[in-house]
Amino acid sequence: xxxxxxxxxxxxxxxxxxxxxxxxxxxxxxxxxxxxxxxxxxxxxxxxxxxxxxxxxxxxxxxxxxxxxxxxxxxxxxxxxxxxxxxxxxxxxxxxxxxxxxxxxxxxxxxxxxxxxxxxxxxxxxxxxxxxxxxxxxxxxxxxxxxxxxxxxxxxxxxxxxxxxxxxxxxxxxxxxxxxxxxxxxxxxxxxxxxxxxxxxxxxxxxxxxxxxxxxxxxxxxxxxxxxxxxxxxxxxxxxxxxxxxxxxxxxxxxxxxxxxxxxxxxxxxxxxxxxxxxxxxxxxxxxxxxxxxxxxxxxxxxxxxxxxxxxxxxxxxxxxxxxxxxxxxxxxxx
Amino acid sequence: xxxxxxxxxxxxxxxxxxxxxxxxxxxxxxxxxxxxxxxxxxxxxxxxxxxxxxxxxxxxxxxxxxxxxxxxxxxxxxxxxxxxxxxxxxxxxxxxxxxxxxxxxxxxxxxxxxxxxxxxxxxxxxxxxxxxxxxxxxxxxxxxxxxxxxxxxxxxxxxxxxxxxxxxxxxxxxxxxxxxxxxxxxxxxxxxxxxxxxxxxxxxxxxxxxxxxxxxxxxxxxxxxxxxxxxxxxxxxxxxxxxxxxxxxxxxxxxxxxxxxxxxxxxxxxxxxxxxxxxxxxxxxxxxxxxxxxxxxxxxxxxxxxxxxxxxxxxxxxxxxxxxxxxxxxxxxxxxxx
Amino acid sequence: xxxxxxxxxxxxxxxxxxxxxxxxxxxxxxxxxxxxxxxxxxxxxxxxxxxxxxxxxxxxxxxxxxxxxxxxxxxxxxxxxxxxxxxxxxxxxxxxxxxxxxxxxxxxxxxxxxxxxxxxxxxxxxxxxxxxxxxxxxxxxxxxxxxxxxxxxxxxxxxxxxxxxxxxxxxxxxxxxxxxxxxxxxxxxxxxxxxxxxxxxxxxxxxxxxxxxxxxxxxxxxxxxxxxxxxxxxxxxxxxxxxxxxxxxxxxxxxxxxxxxxxxxxxxxxxxxxxxxxxxxxxxxxxxx
Lengths: 335, 338, 289
Description:
The structure holds three protein chains of three kinds. Chain A is of the alpha/beta class. Chain A is 27% helix and 23% strand. Chain A has nine helices and twelve strands. In chain A, the strands form two sheets. Chain A has an eight-stranded mixed sheet with strand order 6-7-8-3-9-10-12-11, with helices on both faces. In chain A, strand 9 (226-231) and strand 10 (234-240) form a beta hairpin. Chain B has 13 helices and twelve strands. The radius of gyration of chain B is 21 Å and the shape is globular. Chain B has helices spanning 51-58, 86-92, 104-107, 114-126, 130-143, 149-152, 162-174, 192-209, 220-226, 244-249, 254-262, 307-311, 330-335, and strands at residues 7-20, 23-36, 40-44, 67-76, 79-80, 97-100, 180-184, 212-217, 229-234, 237-243, 316-318, 324-326. In chain B, a hairpin with a 2-residue loop joins strand 1 and strand 2 (23-36). Chain C is mainly α. Chain C has helices spanning 16-22, 24-41, 43-46, 78-113, 115-129, 133-143, 148-175, 178-185, 190-227, 238-245, 254-281. The model of chain C is unreliable at 1-7 and 285-289 (pLDDT under 50). At the A-B interface, helix 6, helix 7, helix 8 and helix 9 of A face helix 7, helix 8, helix 9, helix 10 and helix 11 of B.
């Protein structure tokens, strides 16, 4: 591959210090992201899926340099931006844009829709005045909104329309990659479908790459090419979409698939296994494999050794001691 | 229609309205349904359809400064709830009809221990001494599968995880053996694996206690897996009602069909390799509830709409096997491709 | 593919009568304050006699047709002095509100946004807030000459920290909003972020706070003048009118009661305005019909 990946992340770590006591000393840390590596190629969607506390949102913000990484490397189009200060980071922001989850708080309530969407254009000096208005009008049309709505305020739009505004804003500077953090989670089903379809269309038309963060596997199934499953700051499985859904190897992936509700009454009570217990706190993750406390297949060694993420089949990576390279992809026997 | 004898809750032509700066919002616009003893009824719809307001209306929890039950009847075990005074309603709530809410974080009092909150409810409604109330609280925590219940009684809500807090809410709701439990989006704020646990728990408890459940959600998957009968709401009206298998097998209302097609699903085997199938969209937007709705509320977005649909409100059509639809064009919809 | 935006509720048209009906506190407080300001501006026209003119032959007359609020011990018309006194109170109130708002806004923005100076500046603010303005005023006046300007400075200094706190709190909460992160990701830099995204959202709480500062300042000025540490005694201020009337309270209560009532009513008007604005502008407290 001659062109470098649009985004590459190497052993990314992000710890948040916990302060306590009278003098507010550092008493511990939340290991939100604990050594994550992946790469996204041009035009590809990598889905990051996991439950609360798994670190997926933190990865999104760190990759955007809205949060500074504790360790590891971040490369945008081959260039190392890990240690860049805000001033030096600024020109790189053209290449990586974002869409947020909450369509209500991600828009400044006092600015008109046109101003919000056109702001990146003015920030980077791509357009000014009348030219900005023209470009914004075209962006509005591109995402399915009437251009004369430019003058309206954000709160005059519905949730789904606001997400479209967010997409228009992200598109304005023609980025290589868009980090989408739960972009459809707060939307109704019927609106969700509209926005997802829009995102897929735009990707195919413009060759955009997406880092798509969500907790919803069904949504992932529609929009991703490859999917990374995260648990407590680590990637536990990474594979292309079809393989992940038809041949999940990691016990946590299996648990997620089995817990997901499907609109099919016949699936009732046919659940293979409902994994018990609560998600441990990222401030005190279990030793060894983070998932061992809830894993039906855990063996003694799982409590001690943290399994590395290894490629057990072409393009299929798993972090599980009981899944060696070239092993049997069938169901695991319970310990 | 369930036999009236067996119906523990009967709602007839309920109208709940709110006064806002933009006019009167008809949040619930003529909704009728019944709940049989021990049955699980799902009320499903998207935001703004009136499902939560319906639930709040059942327990007369609508804030009185801005809203009111404009008309309609709610009969619980033969008693007319809309005519009861506030004192009588207070005796009912938490005792014979309980409710659990979406956000377990804010539904529990942060300065009282979990045991105190449950025991308080028991003392209030059953009048037993504090010690027995605490024992009952412990029993309830066991029932909802919280390990080490005795110790947990003395913990504060912030010491528990989201899933645990929701279990505590369920324990509190069931502590006085209610006949009806209203659950308003009980798992929406929880992680997927925890949601599965809670739904499983609710089903198990239902078998054990025989409580009837009204489950309100926007998630058709939850409905499919936990309910026996379903009511679909849109813009304050009931558009379809059916036993759950029938609804998913053959949805008759265009809105229900649209929803089913718009949901992302996990059945990837159906896709050709490497493709990304588009989801079917429902065009347009939910109507504004301050404007009077002429004809069928869904008509502007409906592929089957005729002129009559836009002018006359649709009748409730009986499609057999307990399946009713509010639509003029049932035959055409039935005949068209699923 | 184009979605109709017309489907959304049309924007509400503004009607003054409905606005007054829905916000009685703001309407009442605002009108009352406006009336007092007009009275102060038109003082030369409204006053029935010269407030400075001493006529001992007319001392301590009760309210009558000639002297609507009676006279004080120097024979000066209490009505005219009260009307002129409004000027001092309102000038002090409004200028203290204005200056402390400007300074408070600048410092609050800086502290809330640039965390590094926050610690130091807030400790200084805490220190300033601990100084009672009356003592500070007296100290400043002994160092310089008494006058309106000094009074204003002396009151501004302890009021600024209160404004800084409010602004800083708002800035801190805005800073963590997703739309700020969205703007940063979109390439917006600090200066533009502050001016376009942060500042407009601080104005509402700032305006509300400034009404309370105004009320507080008027009371403090009255107190200072009462103690003789405010404006010079010949210049009519409600505070010093009351001070001078103290000795004769039992035989001529109008010299205290009238200016006192005016002071109370003005402070009430400003507070009502502030409360009304606060309720109206705070999205969480805003109630519907």
